[in-house]
Design goal:
heterodimer, A: about 450 residues, alpha+beta, OB fold (Dihydrolipoamide Acetyltransferase, E2P), Dihydrolipoamide Transferase, 3 domains, 6-stranded mixed beta sheet, 4-stranded antiparallel beta sheet, B: about 325 residues, alpha/beta, Rossmann fold, 5-stranded mixed beta sheet, about 40% helix, EC 2.3.1.- (chain A), 2-oxoacid_DH_E2_comp (chain A), acetyltransferase activity (chain A), Dihydrolipoamide acetyltransferase component of pyruvate dehydrogenase complex (chain A)
Amino acid sequence: MATEIKMPQLGESVTEGTIAKWLKKPGDPVAKYEAICEVSTDKVNAEVPATFEGTMVEIVAGEGETVAVGEIICKMAEEGAEVTAAPTTPVAEEAKPEATNASAPAPAKVDVSAKRGSGSGRFSPAVLRLSQENDIDLTLLTGTGAGGRITRKDILTAIEQGIGKVGSAPTPQVISVDEPVVAQVPTVDVDTALSTTPPASKPAMGVVTEEGDIEIPLTSVRKTIASRMVQSKHEAPHAWTMMEVDVTGLVELRNKMKHDFKVREGVSLTFMPFFIKAVSDALKEFPVINSMWGGDKIIQKKRINISIAVATDDALYVPVIPDVDELSILGLAKKVNTLAQKTRAGKLDLSDLQGGTFTVNNTGSFGSVMSQPIINQPQAAILSFEAIVKRPVVMNNMFAVRDMMNICMSLDHRVLDGLVAGRFLARVKELLEEYTVDSTF
Amino acid sequence: MAIMSYIEAVTLAMREEMQRDSQVFVLGEDVGVRGGVFRATDGLYSEFGEDRVLDTPLTESAIAGVAIGAAAYGKRPIAEMQFADFIMPAINQIISEAAKIRYRSNNKWSCPMVVRAPYGGGIHGALYHSQSVEKIFTGVPGLKIVTPSTPYDVKGLLKSAIRDDDPVLFFEHKRCYRLIKGEVPADDYTIPIGKADVKREGTDVTVITYGMMVHFALQAAEQLEKDGISVHVLDLRTLVPLDKEAVLEAVAKTGKVLVVHEDNLTGGFGGEVSAIIAEEAFFELDAPVRRLAGPDVPAMPYSPTLEKEFILNPDKIAKAIRELAEF
């Protein structure tokens, strides 16, 4: 087989040479390093030596022809090889694959059911901008890019062909938001909340950012709060009621006890244990309040596990004190204290957050006198204890200065009606008003 | 219109400018009697004499220094560095003096000098005859940097460079010298410094490049056209000042950008181009901006195999374009 001899590089910057003279003609034997032709360039004139011993087969570039470096000038057969006639037509050319149509990108089609590849959920800046400017619903397009990615060209094609317009889908595609989350077990499960696709996590439309505004990225806790609040307000029809409680006796009792209590027990005596105790006792009497919505049924919980709202600077947690009906005021005080510390230290375990059946919210701690709490789903109600303030009230047809507190309850009207809620609330009020300076606990 | 090679356009531009303005003169190693090692100054010595075509010692610092002094005196020197690789001894003169004269003198002095230097590889020039040096200078304010790719651009841009009142580094890709031929009008035209040029219109992928790589990109585009991939090629022509508008316009054509240069990847001018695109054309992008450049090794090797590995070629560029097109 003949070996192709190419135009050598004859100097820096020389990219072509002109064949000045052939020194060998086809059929001539050629010794190794023997000159086969003379080449002239605008820099040098040189002879081209043979790099192996053999026979000249064919001269490709004639005398006077200018040939680029690397192009074939002649063909030689190696010593010992059989000399065959040079082929007249280049074979390689014919074997070229027909690639013109095969790899041309197909235009985007309306194909909602198309299988989506790994690239389908990621959009380039250009694609997002074009889709927004032209009202193109990206879920209606099929991408032709890597992994099914919708490319800028796909969008341009769609715009040109007028397809993929928002609202033009033959069957509107339901974005698979989870079905209403109906918990079988009363758990405040952070993970579940995070994995849902609540409407709250969608970008709000029409929010304009101006210079100087600060965009705060959502933490996972913030997202959970947002999704749970939206879910609760969205699913549970909230009813609301409020009562006034005269806690003069309780205030006096606490004032009398708090110093010794702190010294003796190591924790402060707050009002919270008394509130929880009253709620716990009232729940025993009105077990339906300690229920949750079960979709096709109402589940009345046996255990009384009280969720307490604990705020930190940037989030709100509702850790749970289980089985409060088994705890004394002291036990409750310690539990509240522990949970509050764990919350503020960010050391709550998942078990601390699970299993609540009713929520108590101490909004009075920051001075609120009235609030409309959002129910901690799937619980049926939430109770806020507002600030204790001295107010003139009428007692025995006389004005008296009393320590007054409002208690506010939001209830899921699917589970509870106003009457039972009112009775429950009245019982809580009664239990709290029973305390006097001489009560024991 | 005459068809001429890239290097003939270099010679022609200098000859015409020397005829037009008696202040223009050439200096460098072997530029006189010999007519330059690449023949860039061929015939200038006999036409303009030894006073205007100066053979210098092998001292690039002096070539640049003398040129700067002459420029300050009102002359318009064209200093030739025999190879861009040899510009290193002149760097102090160019960066510390030429680039700063106008600024340092509060606009009283200027430095209307051109430094011509053949750069680039692919010609078996090995370590000291193949380097791309543009990135050493692109970050130095006060210098203009021109890197033409065609004979037409060479003539128009070299004339502009000679007439410019500030120092211009005129980098000629030595592989283009005799490989690239094209039509060059006989008339006295100029091309403004700082204007890029669309060398090919396309809709799928934009290639932004300069110098010899423009031709490789065009060849790659030719190959890919058969497969239905349409490539847009922007020739920067001038690196500093960069034609930002042309860059952004070229990005908007396709949303997919490949920046190509023979200079090393890290710190290469492609990084600057990419950053500008990221900052100013984010919403036009349909794919990450991709760079294709010489590898980060000290120099172009002599071994043909290694040289081939080092230098870009139409196939390597075509492969990168194809990947972007398929993204």
